[in-house]
């Protein structure tokens, strides 16, 4: 990792550095085993004399600071996509060095943490039988499995001499192309355990995906003794008595994903319990204490044949401890799906679009999914996804947010308009040039040098002259400059997506990471639920606000937001970069907000809002707190460590404006901010036109007529 830059823009004109880059900060170590307890030290963080270290960005409580030591947080470090004996690199927290009385610290560090996976299932005592879908599997040329040897040196093998009853290889079924073994009940597919597998005390771990939820599916069986998933998706164990456990909502055994089932049975008391994907199921109880010897995988006796794809099956001869179960569940995450992939070509079961065709717009239809902790919606970096993420349901709790993230290089583009968004007829040059005026709802954007660059010109509805069009490589092209490559010039025209936002505004516990969001005629994302997140995203070139959170406990951090409200020919909104509309407890940190038609950051109603470390440049009003007839005004807002730079053409001349309508019951704290006026002689850094109290300290201004406040 020597000298390596992660390239994460903080909106501070900075690049986060790793430990030994010349940032004035360093960490002594960045590797830790997955077996360590919470609070274990990862490494000591050093900073220049007189500075202290604070943690400004973390992921799910995985890291914490103890003094100046970076330590393991309260949550399990290991979830990822690595197998036994491997390692997982985890983006660590972002740390900043701060000094009392020194606003706008530029000393920032983000180490990359390597988690060494030191425990495999064989490292946990009592492993009796183990079958892994990619280890010891013997299949014929048709993929029919005839033998399956035990993994980790275990002695129990699976065999099937009758080809018609043999399960088959499911190639590339799991994460990273990992193969599975498919059991089909219609063909009575199962395997025989040789020798028979005894069980009294025990823990069974099955990593599998059911292929139906309408029939009993045996995982292990022998005569009247069995473990199976029932037709109602509960899990029944019989060690003398049949007892069911029912997985809870959002941790169910469904046909749309691979899950991890853990079953424990006490051979003395008969106590039986089950877990699915790390969550305890309801029910369970006394399943009996009769000794059993399982003889089948995928069959009870002559019924309940398996109908699933099996990725792993482990059997221990004792009830594992909670810590051991957590470890084996973390290991199992390398063998089950935790991600839904959305691609512009419509692959992986999603409704995408064909780049060679103008319609339909791409949308991610993910309704009915029961999401789990650590699940992610993955869009392909560089893809242009036109439309919205729709109808997410299930699993979205504070402990289990759904995260929309990226895979591959670059940011996926989720746009409210695209070259494909305009319906057209005829072939060039017979296409009507009047399309530019008739179909552009407010704005068209011209990408002169291709979609990887920012648009160089924006045209409003007021176009009066026709322009020449041609169609090349599936995109509408506009020829506005002689000598330009028609395949590079791209015209982006909003069509029927005018009022859509990227994602439903009402749902809670949704996180958006690492996306490029542009060309929505309404607000690009206005979450009104609870505990929503926008991080490391680019929002730009829209007719209304870039980001407008309401609800409560929203986190907007490490984003670039620009060119909002850039159409002066249509009234859709003020064009704020970030506009807080209601709720409480929002956090706006380390965003770069620039060149917006409205205020860079406007707080209209939010209480307890913390705005920290943001860089606001060249917006009509950098920071503004207002009141209107609908909103009572914000209370207890904190503005700390921001850099506020005024542009010469800005409409409102002050750095921070408290609106004249604000009531006396608000309290605003403004500390350690840097206000750069660039010669704005008729403005002040802080102007309080309201009745509330402004508690200002440690602020620095240059180029304004004065500090104000």
Automatic annotation (TrEMBL):
Pfam families in the cross-refs: Beta_helix (PF13229)
InterPro entries for this protein: Beta_helix (IPR039448), ConA-like_dom_sf (IPR013320), Pectin_lyas_fold (IPR012334), Pectin_lyase_fold/virulence (IPR011050)
Right handed beta helix domain segment(s): 570-688
Protein's name according to its UniProt entry: Right handed beta helix domain-containing protein
Source lineage: Bacteria, Pseudomonadati, Pseudomonadota, Alphaproteobacteria, Caulobacterales
């Amino acid at each position: 990792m020597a000298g390596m830059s992660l390239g994460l823009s903080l909106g501070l004109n900075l690049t986060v550095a790793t430990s030994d880059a010349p940032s004035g900060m360093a960490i002594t170590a960045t590797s830790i085993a997955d077996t360590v307890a919470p609070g274990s030290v990862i490494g000591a963080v050093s900073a220049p004399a007189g500075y202290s270290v604070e943690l400004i960005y973390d992921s799910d409580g995985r890291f914490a600071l103890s003094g100046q030591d970076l330590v393991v947080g309260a949550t399990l470090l290991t979830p990822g996509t690595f197998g036994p004996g491997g390692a997982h690199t985890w983006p660590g927290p972002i740390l900043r060095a701060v000094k009392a009385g020194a606003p706008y610290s530029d000393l920032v560090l983000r180490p990359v943490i390597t988690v060494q996976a030191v425990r495999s299932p064989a490292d946990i005592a009592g492993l009796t039988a183990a079958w892994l879908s990619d280890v010891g599997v013997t299949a014929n040329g048709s993929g029919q499995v005839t033998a399956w040897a035990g993994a980790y040196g275990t002695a129990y093998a699976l065999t099937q001499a009758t080809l018609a009853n043999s399960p088959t290889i499911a190639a590339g079924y799991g994460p990273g192309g990992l193969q599975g073994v498919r059991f089909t009940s219609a063909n009575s597919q199962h395997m025989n355990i040789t020798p028979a597998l005894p069980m009294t005390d025990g823990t069974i771990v099955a990593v599998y995906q059911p292929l139906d939820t309408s029939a009993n599916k045996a995982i292990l069986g022998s005569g009247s003794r069995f473990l199976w998933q029932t037709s109602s998706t509960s899990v029944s164990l019989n060690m003398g008595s049949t007892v069911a456990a029912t997985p809870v909502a959002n941790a169910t055994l469904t046909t749309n994903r691979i899950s991890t089932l853990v079953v424990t049975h006490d051979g003395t008391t008969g106590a039986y319990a089950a877990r699915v994907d790390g969550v305890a199921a309801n029910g369970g109880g006394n399943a009996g204490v009769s000794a059993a010897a399982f003889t089948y995988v995928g069959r009870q006796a002559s019924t309940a044949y398996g109908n699933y794809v099996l990725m792993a099956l482990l059997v221990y001869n004792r009830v594992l401890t909670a810590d051991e179960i957590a470890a084996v569940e973390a290991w199992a995450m390398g063998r089950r799906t935790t991600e839904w992939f959305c691609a512009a070509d419509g692959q992986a079961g999603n409704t995408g679009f064909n780049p060679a065709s103008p319609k339909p717009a791409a949308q991610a239809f993910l309704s009915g999914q029961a999401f789990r902790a650590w699940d992610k919606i993955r869009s392909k970096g560089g893809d242009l996804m036109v439309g919205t993420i729709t109808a997410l349901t299930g699993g979205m709790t504070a402990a289990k947010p759904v995260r929309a993230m990226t895979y591959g290089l670059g940011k996926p583009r989720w746009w409210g308009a695209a070259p494909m968004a305009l319906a057209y007829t005829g072939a060039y040059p017979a296409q009507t040039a009047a399309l530019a005026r008739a179909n552009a709802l407010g704005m068209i954007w011209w990408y002169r040098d291709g979609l990887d660059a920012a648009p160089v010109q924006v045209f409003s509805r007021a176009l009066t002259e026709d322009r020449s069009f041609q169609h090349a490589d599936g995109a509408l092209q506009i020829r506005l400059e002689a000598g330009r490559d028609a395949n590079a010039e791209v015209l982006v025209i909003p069509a029927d997506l005018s009022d859509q936002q990227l994602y439903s505004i009402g749902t809670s516990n949704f996180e958006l990471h690492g996306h490029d969001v542009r060309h929505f005629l309404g607000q690009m994302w206005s979450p009104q639920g609870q505990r929503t997140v926008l991080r490391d995203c680019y929002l730009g070139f829209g007719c209304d606000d870039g980001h407008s959170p309401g609800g409560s406990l929203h986190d907007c951090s490490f984003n670039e937001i620009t060119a909002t409200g850039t159409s002066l020919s249509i009234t859709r909104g003020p064009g704020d970069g970030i506009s807080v509309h209601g709720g409480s407890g929002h956090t706006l940190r380390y965003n770069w907000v620039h060149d917006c038609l409205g205020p860079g950051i406007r707080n209209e109603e939010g209480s307890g809002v913390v705005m920290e470390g943001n860089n606001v440049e060249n917006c009509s009003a950098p920071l503004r707190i207002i009141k209107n007839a609908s909103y009572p005004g914000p209370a207890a807002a904190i503005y700390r460590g921001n850099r506020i730079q005024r542009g010469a053409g800005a409409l409102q001349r002050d750095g921070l404006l408290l609106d004249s309508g604000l009531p006396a019951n608000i309290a605003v704290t403004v500390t350690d901010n840097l206000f750069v006026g660039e010669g704005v002689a008729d403005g002040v850094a802080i102007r309080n036109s309201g009745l509330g109290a402004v508690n200002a300290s440690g602020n620095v201004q240059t180029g304004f007529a004065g500090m104000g406040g």
